[in-house]
Amino acid sequence: MSRSLFFGSVRRLLQTAWTSQRNTALNREFPDGENEPWSPSRREFLQTSAVVSLAAFVPAGLGSGCGTPSDSALPEKARIAIVGAGMAGLHCAYRLKQAGVIAKVFEANNRVGGRMFTGRGLFADGQVCELGGEFIDSNHVAMRELATEFAITIDDLTAGASAGLIDELFYFEGRQIPEAEIVAAFEPLAAIMATTVEAAEADDDEFERIDAMSIVEWLDEQNAAPILKKILIEAYIGEYGLEAEEQSVFNLLYLIDYEEADPFHIFGDSDERYHVHTGSDTLTTRLAERLEGQIELESKLLAIRELQSGDYELSLNQSGQTIKATFDHVVLAIPFTTLRQVTLDVEMDDDKREAIDEIGYGTNAKLMGGFTSRLWREDHNASGSVFTDNGIQSLWDSSRGQSGTAGLLTNYVGGKLGEAIGAGTPEERMAESLVGIEDIFAGAAQAYTKDSAVRMHWPTAPFALGSYTCYRPGQWIYYGEEGRRVKNLHFCGEHCSLDFQGYMEGACETGAMVAAELLDDLALPLPAAMHRTLEHKLVLPQACYHGDQHDKLRRNQRRRLSRRPRTVLEPVS
Hints:
By secondary structure, this protein is of the alpha/beta class. The chain contains 19 helices and 22 strands.
């Protein structure tokens, strides 16, 4: 589930390596296999059956009003509070309003949008920069449906791509690494990754043993090629935002997916094909405009108390004053990093509370700078996407698809570098980054537009306190816990998505799912627009949609949900 261009590239190379390794094995063992009729092995049949059995837990009446409340009968007009006015909370409130249900939205910040935050008027040629979420993938259905619904233009970044450019430049150990060299180093590791996942999922004890290992520990144990180890470590620091020593190796091993059981496939690439023309937060702004009178800014949640009646009393700080309000349902659409600051005086099982208290978050940050030209294209025949160990981790061209001739580079970092880049001024940090950029693209320092640096440091942003979810060693056991409701406490946000954790899509789709769950509880039908967004998602269980039913699943069944297929739609016209 790549958030960075680097990670999508690494995953594509692994897919090439795995395909090469697998095809060699098939040709060696089954030279005539292509002409044989296919019949599933017992293992393949059981895996396919497992998906079918999991699907049986999905409530049958999607949006038909057949759902049942978790407690006693609801009042005719339920009182619903949504905490958080990012994509998840706003989308939830908007879909509820379409069905005639008006929720109150509380936001601690003085703006809406959360981690969707666009900078405007900062760079030449009217170019926008994304301080938070930037790209939309081809299979991000909820985001693209919402853009279509609001008639918001989404740019296809592949449409204006120049032929012959170096798509991704791997610059390690002071040289450009050919893709063929990376693929060759990947091939032996790909097979080991596959067998490790298979063994772990067959035995809970083995799963916990592997989950307790960090990425670095596991790569050392497998004697991974030094250059490959460097590339993977940089990929995972940037992708998940913590040092590789602080991440569960399953973050790496779940590069490999069972798709339709034959046998291991790699997760489909995050193509990062689209960008909202006017900036990502155009979507959240449009949502907020449709919720006039429902949003209260600068309203920080302090405590939730479960009353004997089953209602919830919220304590909020509004402009220095503490207010209290009571609701039948509460939707928590804020990251767990900030939820940890809230006193939760509610009945909650240990797994849920531990997930809230302990799940890791990345320290990703962005540093952006303007350039008088796009010299990486003009002088170096490169797209601008760079992945390196020279101190800057990763770069990409954020001026793609935008007007004018000026250039805009985003330096995307995580881990210790993500923390450190928040020190000093943006210009001081850009001066350091320019040394690494110049090393790769000669002339960059001269082309840099002085005093143009813009920085977003998510680890210290008070209403985020991190970039997005990152499982630490031992934390994959919490997969699916994040979005599971607790009585009439509901949860949504990127951290709650089973398929798109860490993406804008994860926030968008889970907000809609919680709205659907609430409408089921209220015996109300889903609006037509929600059907278009959700019908393809609820074929399989979703943590944010009647996720309490996942208690029926064993842990190994829940883990298999992380490998399910993703729907890819044709581009929105």
